[in-house]
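Can anyone check this?
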Amino acid sequence: MRALIQRVTRATVSVDGHKIGQCGPGLMILICAMQGDTETQADQIAAKIAKLRIFKDDEGRMNRSILDIGGSALVVSQFTLAADTARGNRPGFSAAAAPEDGRRLYARFAASLAGLGIPTETGEFGADMAVELVNDGPVTIWLEL
């Protein structure tokens, strides 16, 4: 699975002008299931993100996790993280999981994150979504398992 993680003060996701999910302060997580990914990988990447020390401690160093700060997460599916731009100018997405697998693994990832004690809201799989966020730092991290 691939994830783009952004430390945020707040984030929202809307569909057709209606807000369906939000978080803050915490993490905005764009997630993509790749071909061959499993539930185990969804659980592993959720655990990794939950423990990732990217929040400031009392000395201003990135030394605390989302669990440490009691933060929340907004999880949005984004198959475009699977983009292959090696040839030409039009990205290919054939490395992304099939839609039914992607939907299942997206739901598993969000449930796993919530199961670790992180308040988690989501977007709508496959929908045309509008995401708004305030990146804190900015801190943006690419993660792949």
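Reply from J.R.: I decoded it. The beta strands are 2-15, 18-23, 26-32, 55-56, 62-64, 72-77, 120-122, 129-144.
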